[in-house]
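Database export, one record per block. Field names are fixed; values are copied verbatim from the stored entry.
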Amino acid sequence: AKQAKIAPVRVLGCNGSGSNSGVIAGVDWVAGNHRKPAVANMSLGGGASSALDTAVRNAVAAGVSMVVAAGNDNTNACNGSPNRVAEALTVGSTTRTDQRSSFSNFGACVDLFAPGSDITSAWYQSDSQTARLNGTSMAAPHAAGAAALYLAANPSASPQQVFTALVDGSATGMISNAGNQSPNRLLQVDEDDGGTVTDRLPTAAFTAQCSGTVCQFDASGSSDDNGVAAWDWTLGDGNVASGEQISHDYGTAGSFTVTLTVTDTANQTASIDKGVISEDTSNPCPSCTRYEGSLGNGSSVTLPSGGFSFGGGNVEAFLYSPAGGAFSLALERRSCFFLFGCSWSQVGSAQPQNGVATLNGSVGSGTYRWRVTAQSGSGAYTLLANPR
């Protein structure tokens, strides 16, 4: 962040200690006098203090990206302030071999880790002196610098957006002994000349709403730190489409696996699969329970797995096979014998016709379950069944 300006705010004495009231006064001053975009580093900490927590939250609400040290007691970071403040970015320390530093606090209140062991830093005894130091007080400034880099490229970003970019852009699974409930995330910054925070992958998400055989798809829930550039759909029946919001008429009842692939401005992609069902407009079973899942060729599943008790009477079920597949449906009854234990036996079955297996009949009281079998093909199915 070549154009960043540093505004030191002194809240501790020369011996490195101070009072909560002094720290709070400094945080309040930053909240009231900063120029946006702004990052504040807090390489300090102590016991739990609701007043200090509130001051830090107020600074974040004022638009300051507050980066705080996790603490150096090798204990739960959630026990102290300001490191327990969820709205701030709490940073633990790692060694040069990507191990959690032996002194670093850990736990669910830590957001990520950064180098904090054996760090060459400026020293207070002269304007030119340096020292090799250890502590989360060394780790937090690394993250504060990364936040400044991100704000240089995204000056209107909120503190939450800054922290999300840093966390999502971090390297995962790199830290040895990260600590109980700690995120295994290590701060990562690109090595290019711009020094921008790594562009994170997009997230694919969509909803589907079907009326009869026509389904509406909405991918507005997808996201990316720099924006989604394209939305591409594979609709499960051989058709494809593009766009954030689309409509598709399957023309027939059935169960289909829909894939959404989103592409961001850096040409990175992410995909998500979801099963959808197109139904006859008559809605064959409004009172039925809906079961959804996916099966491979030759496999089967029982629904619900433990069965259900039924007092006797009419049963009805509609099983929608995936496109190109043939899934059969059976109703099974549980019987128990004193010497031989319990077993399940089939009392009704149905084969698919035009993608739908329909089972109707009447049975006595007992314990029952539905069985779906993938006789050919694989993919998503939907079962509408009554009773359940």
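Remark 1: The chain has four helices and 25 strands.
Remark 2: The first strand starts at residue 38 and ends at 42.
End of record.
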